[in-house]
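Handout, section B. The chain below has 303 residues.
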Amino acid sequence: MATSSRLCHHGALSDDIRHSLAAHRITTVSGLLSATPSEISDITGLKKASVTELRDVLLSEYGAVPYLSYDGCQVCHDDAETTTRLIRSYLDNYLPSGSLKCGELTELYGTSSSGKTQLCLRVASAFCAKKFKVAYVDTDGSFSGLRILDMLGDDVEPSNEESLLENVHIFRVFNEADLVQALERILYATIPYKLVIVDSVASVLVPILSRAHSLGNAILTQIGRLMLKIARQRNAFVLCTNYGHTTGKGELEKPAMGVVWAHIPSARVHVKRSCPLESSSRKTTLVKSTGFRTGTQVVFDVQ
């Protein structure tokens, strides 16, 4: 950990905070991290929330392995259990058990028009219904606030529609640089995002994999780690979509982006259109999970 770095060179500090810390001879990263937020607040007069936020930024940048104390882990666990219980009734008819877990990255993959975006909107609507904050990273212009309201249906009073949609924050991205910037903004945001959706991660990453092989894989890994970091450090649910493809006739459909990406998602759900092709029926299958039996399926209709 490069804790000897000077705070005066760090971009996360405002001038007021920098001057307050320097006035009390707190000029290095190690000097700030060696005391608790309460102690720093008492010494400098800064708000405890501001000090805590600054410490989180520094720990994420300089810390080798972020960790939580036992009490912190218990709080996160209780919070995750409460959130999962609140949204379960909205999603049990669309996703197999174990598909979405707090602190993990879930991937939905399937061919075009299989229903991946509809599922993303369905998940977003479930969190909106319980007034959780949602960050929706839209790479192909498929987000629809009206569709979310349709999914909520009679559960929402017309007078509450606008306030519910204010819980969803849209990030429009067009390339890998935009995506990295959006994910970093979400990671360090003061807004308590409980759900982060990237639809679709493949539309941004697949084109760069056709460039210099090592560069494309490096960017892919960076973006994957950013999403995992958001899930774990913010104690959030993170969901992304990916293309599905087959290597030959009769082969099982596989997620795109190759073996480098394959290990990054904690859970993977295959989304498939039921036969006949004009049917509105869709099937989701859990193909990868931590702690849940794979192979479980749910069949539902796209409304």
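Note. The CA atoms of residues 5 and 276 lie 62 Å apart. Compare this with the example in section A.
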